[in-house]
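Researcher: Structure prediction, please.
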Amino acid sequence: MNKEEQLQQLAKELGVDYKITVEKWTRKWRTNEYEWTFNWVDGGFNTEWAFTKEEAIAKANASSSLVVDENTVRKTTERHSVELVRMGNMMSN
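Model: Predicted structure follows.
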């Protein structure tokens, strides 16, 4: 069974109509850190480069007077990163 067939089998086993995709995580080329996306408790969002979720939260909280909503911290895919930049540009114009 090839990887595509394995994904289709997994979707079938889940018992619901799913589309399963595989995407690369966004990584910083010099340090190899991941990009993490999060919301602030008081509203708004930002990103942070770190190796782990815990490190991303600590770095973001240390660099701002705002507080990270820890339930919203997610590793960013390359496609998601492009969409975040596009959304940020729309909000600033």
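Model: The mean pLDDT is 90.
Researcher: Thanks, that helps.
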